[in-house]
Specification:
Distance between the termini: 30 Å
Radius of gyration: 17 Å
Low-confidence stretches: 186-208, 211-228
Order of helices and strands: EEHHHEEEHEHEEHHEE
Structural class: alpha+beta
Number of domains: 1
CATH topology: Aminopeptidase
CATH superfamily: Gcn5-related N-acetyltransferase (GNAT)
Helix content: 25-40%
CATH class: Alpha Beta
Length: 228
């Protein structure tokens, strides 16, 4: 089963492509992003970016993680990345992460992309719990997680080291039963899990639309040259 794309109001979360390597590299090398991100897990060179992008299809096939490029519908610009990592099938858990290019901070893109990824995780992947981490010195990411419905569960004191300084990290999480109570269609989950499992998902010609209870086949939009 190949990874589908997700449509939301202003963006398409789509599988990453080779042409995205320069954007991924620039995101990973941005100092402001590195300073506010708990762990450096993205590639630094374009060659490493290509290898990482090539591995994302296997990640989804093996259900260990799913990574998306955040592409705006208007103009086709790639403005960031979002994903569900550290997926454990037995426990039905995953970790949400997101990175938005600095020039686009403050536009609500992280919240919109995060909401779409969370809904995809609960409805399509059948997750029961999605958590997220943010550095305490980066309260903006904490506010994004809170908008998604996550509750703070703990504080990991001096959990990461950045520039030789140990920093605290906060843990937040959302359960499926909590998410169902705050969604516009709380009974959508029961329908979508079975229907999505029966749907044909054949890669980039398939779209999973946020707010819908089934996988929908739609013509894939033409992606323009992406960039920061």
């Amino acid at each position: 089963m190949q990874q589908p794309s997700i449509m939301s109001e202003r963006m398409v979360l789509r599988p990453l492509m080779e042409k995205d390597a320069p954007v991924v590299r620039r995101l990973a090398r941005n100092r402001k992003i590195a300073y506010t991100t708990p762990w450096v897990f993205l590639p630094y060179s374009e060659k490493q970016a290509l290898l990482w992008i090539a591995s994302t299809a296997d990640h989804f096939a093996q259900r260990t993680s799913v990574e998306f490029g955040i592409q705006l519908k208007c103009g086709g610009r790639l403005v960031g990345l979002v994903g569900l990592d550290h997926m454990i099938a037995h426990d039905s858990v995953a970790e949400l992460w997101f990175i938005i290019t600095v020039a686009c901070w403050g536009n609500g893109y992280a919240t919109e992309a995060g909401r779409a990824a969370v809904q995809f995780g609960f409805e399509h992947l059948g997750l029961n719990r999605i958590c997220g981490y943010h550095m305490v010195r980066n309260p903006a990411s904490g506010r994004v997680l809170a908008k998604l419905g996550m509750k703070r569960e703990g504080l990991l004191r001096q959990h990461v080291r950045k520039n030789e300084i140990f920093a605290d990290v906060a843990l937040m999480a959302l359960l499926r039963e909590e998410w169902a109570k705050i969604t516009p269609h709380p009974n959508i989950l029961a329908r979508s899990r079975g229907e999505c499992a029966r749907s044909r998902v054949s890669g980039q010609n398939d779209f999973w639309s946020v707010g819908q209870s089934r996988c929908l086949r739609r013509k894939h939009p033409r992606h323009s040259r992406s960039g920061i």
